[in-house]
Design brief:
Layout (H helix, E strand, L loop, with lengths): L8 E6 L2 H12 L2 E2 L7 E5 L6 E6 L13 E4 L3 H10 L8 E3 L2 E7 L5 E5 L6
Parallel strand pairs: 1-4, 5-8
Antiparallel strand pairs: 2-3, 3-4, 6-7, 7-8
């Protein structure tokens, strides 16, 4: 039997790791782990085993050009958008379809992020 590996973390290459770590802590409840390396900050989801490894980008790295999108599960899209906007994070239009509902934004390093209800649809 072949076992599929699970995803445990994503690496984000950014110009200001502290600023981006603070963003995910403030807006999504991530917890910052003690920093071991000067150029890498790890923030961990407070409700799981997923982490973001926020790494100092090199001068040649094209910021915001990654081919990933971070998807964060929330039960109530509109309530989350309203609370986020109070703290300075504005999401775009909420898209709805059969079995999904989501809205998009970008973090301060221009990485695409999405809040989604897909995990809550049965």
């Amino acid at each position: 039997m072949k076992v599929s590996p699970s995803v445990s973390s994503l690496v984000l290459y950014v110009r200001d790791p502290k600023k981006i770590a603070d963003f995910y802590v403030e807006h999504f409840g991530f917890i910052q782990k003690p920093q071991v390396h000067y150029d890498l900050i790890e923030v961990v989801s407070s409700v799981g085993t997923f982490s973001l490894l926020i790494h100092q980008a090199s001068k040649g790295h094209r910021i915001g050009q990654s081919c990933i999108k971070i998807v964060l599960d929330v039960e109530d899209i509109e309530a989350f958008k309203k609370e986020s906007e109070k703290r300075g994070l504005k999401f775009g239009v909420t898209y709805k379809g059969e079995g999904y509902e989501f809205a998009n934004a970008r973090d301060p390093a221009k990485n695409p992020i999405q809040i989604s209800r897909r995990a809550f649809f049965k």
